[in-house]
Design a protein that fits this description.
- By secondary structure, the protein is an alpha/beta fold.
- It contains 15 helices and 20 strands.
- The chain has helices at 84-97, 100-116, 142-154, 186-199, 220-229, 244-254, 258-265, 282-291, 299-305, 312-317, 334-349, 359-374, 399-402, 406-416, 441-455; strands at residues 5-14, 17-19, 22-26, 32-36, 46-55, 57-62, 119-126, 157-164, 167-169, 172-173, 206-208, 210-214, 236-240, 272-276, 294-297, 321-324, 391-395, 422-427, 430-434, 437-438.
- The strands form three sheets. Strands 1, 2, 3, 4, 5, 17, 18, 19 and 20 form a nine-stranded mixed sheet that branches.
- It is globular, with a radius of gyration of 22 Å.
- The structure holds zinc ion.
- Zinc ion binds at residues 61, 63, 125, 239, 275, 327.
């Protein structure tokens, strides 16, 4: 008999609505063993919570080190153009300066903040592989291992996605400022992937994905080889069509737009997680939706970098799938990402109904199911017996939701809440953050402060 721990929530969100009240029994591995409106028959201590439990949000795209420069690239010289490409220079500066201890401290702080906002798993799109001179560490996956260690400290689940990065642009050798990212060829990348797979063994809640950075960063024939010779059971991530310049560069190089090339040359399907996919023509949008692939939208970062607006309203009509990521981490609130996804469509169409029917239910259901796929998890139910208990709990007593019908509850939570409405986050059946307080918050912040003092970039 497992030791069981019971929670009673005022309500718990399933795909088709609320379970009220909700009793959840969790074993010592964090697996749900009991889920019902009825209290359990066995006499057990139950933690009663005045809260609404939602499934933990999935953060499908992160570059952890970039958190160290969040807010530092917002001063613009008068009379000059500032765009993605100048931001990228600032980002390289940041990437060149962090050592493994600092990278781990930054990631732990970031991941703790993600948990505070209700994310319970992150896909770390990891390309900061080598030492400052660009030489592999004696332990090849040193930096990836640090990401796993940071996730363990922060209590978040992690899918480590080691990235194959080879070039500066289509047909152009890498820039020395990218030296920490580079694998010279597919075989070298596979060695890194193998070492990274070992690194994930250090934490029960770490898993692996694989990736090429983008079509501009890896030779096109090697993009094909990497996918075809790569693991058959892992999610495959890459950036596609983030910037207009990337589209024109790709056209000039191979007479194909990036998404067009991808759809013609790889068996794009639901294993693919295509980050941004901002600049698509009609045909690409239709084919993409038909392929079953998932777009990873990063609205705060895309807005911050001036990327452009994904054609969401049309894509949803075509039944396309998508998840969210916080990418550069300029914003960490999943509710803001949802609202930006919706509002940027409202602003460009002058209409309010981006999604037909209940927008909040659609947003949450799609983000959870497709976001989990980005982690390699195929679970379809928000909560079910046999699944790990990962949840974000919203305060049920705050003034608006306390006076709202069940029918309007989720929309009120998603469209009106700020992070102060989050009561806490439970991962594998344990409170990791409660009342805004992270269980390892002091240690995490102390190490982060040390890293920032050493780096002197802020
Ligand atoms: Zn990215």
């Amino acid at each position: 008999m497992h030791y069981m721990n019971y929670f009673r929530f005022k309500s718990l969100l399933q795909k088709d609505g609320w379970l009220s009240p909700a009793y959840v029994g969790v074993d010592d591995d964090g697996i749900i063993r009991y889920l019902s409106q009825e209290s359990p028959a066995e006499v057990a201590a139950t933690e009663s919570i005045l809260g609404f439990a939602l499934p933990g949000f999935q953060n499908a795209h992160s570059h952890a080190f970039q958190y160290a420069m969040a807010g530092l690239a917002e001063t613009h010289t008068i009379g000059t153009t500032d765009d993605f490409w100048t931001w990228r220079e600032a980002m390289y500066q940041c990437a060149l300066s962090v050592n493994p201890d600092q990278a781990e401290a930054i990631a732990a702080m970031l991941y703790a903040e993600m948990v505070r906002h209700g994310y319970t798993q992150v896909a770390e799109f990891h390309y900061l592989h080598h030492d400052k001179e660009g030489k592999p560490y004696s332990h090849r996956a040193e930096m990836g291992e640090r990401m796993v260690a940071a996730a363990k400290t922060a209590g978040i689940k992690i899918t480590l996605v080691p990235v194959f990065y080879q070039r500066a642009n289509f047909g152009i050798d890498f820039n020395p400022r990218q030296r920490r990212f580079i694998s010279k060829a597919t075989e070298e990348y596979f060695k890194l992937l193998e070492a990274s797979a070992k690194a994930t063994k250090a934490y029960d809640h770490a898993s692996l994905g694989f990736s090429v950075h983008s079509l501009r960063a890896v030779d096109l024939t090697e993009v094909i080889t990497t996918f075809n010779q790569g693991p058959k059971d892992l999610p495959f991530h890459l950036h596609v069509s983030e910037q207009k310049k990337e589209v024109t560069d790709c056209l000039a190089y191979c007479n194909r737009r990036p998404m067009q090339w991808l759809l013609e040359n790889l068996p794009v399907n639901e294993r693919f997680h295509l980050v941004h996919s901002t600049h698509l023509d009609d045909h690409e949008l239709q084919q993409l939706a038909k392929s079953g692939a998932n777009v990873v939208l990063c609205p705060s970062t895309e807005g911050n970098l001036g990327d452009g607006i994904f054609r969401m309203k049309e894509y949803v009509k075509l039944k396309g799938h998508w998840s969210i990521g916080t990418d550069s981490h300029i914003g960490l609130n999943p509710l803001e990402e949802f609202r930006m996804i919706d509002y940027r469509q409202r602003l460009v169409t002058n209409q309010r109904n981006t999604f037909e029917g209940d927008a909040a239910t659609y947003l949450v259901n799609e983000e959870i199911i497709s976001g989990r796929k980005a982690m390699g998890i195929q679970q379809q139910e928000h909560f079910a017996v046999g699944q790990s208990f990962d949840a974000v709990i919203f305060n049920s007593e705050s003034h608006l939701v306390a006076n709202t019908s069940e029918q309007n509850r989720l929309a009120t939570l998603i469209y009106t809440s700020d992070s102060s409405r989050v009561m806490g986050t439970i991962i594998s059946g344990k409170w990791i953050v409660k009342n805004q307080h992270h269980r390892a918050g002091h240690e995490i912040k102390t190490k982060f402060n040390t890293a920032m003092r050493e780096l002197k970039t802020r």
